[in-house]
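Structure tokens please, single chain.
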Amino acid sequence: MGWFSRRRSKALERSLRSDGPQMEIDRKAVEAHLRTFVETHRGVEAYVEPPTSVTTTTVVLIAWDGEWTRRAVGSAKDAFDLSRRLGVPAYDVNHTGYPNRMREWNTRRRRGDA
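Here you go.
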């Protein structure tokens, strides 16, 4: 194969493919972790993130003070169903964006204040 060939080798094609969206998710462990976060924090809201070429759909739980946690859930439907079971409101991050309190918490944590 030449340097400027339009065809890629099969090995190169495999290396460019992402394994992220096909990754195994331990749904019980994810739900247990998120439930613990909800039970130990006040004012928790869920933000559903779309899949990327590297990750599957994820959900970010953000507490009233901006502390957050993120876990892969598989699909947007799974994320909204999970938030319903956890009893927290859920938002599509593409429509709402992230709340400022999350960025503020990240800034405080970087400075060592959190």
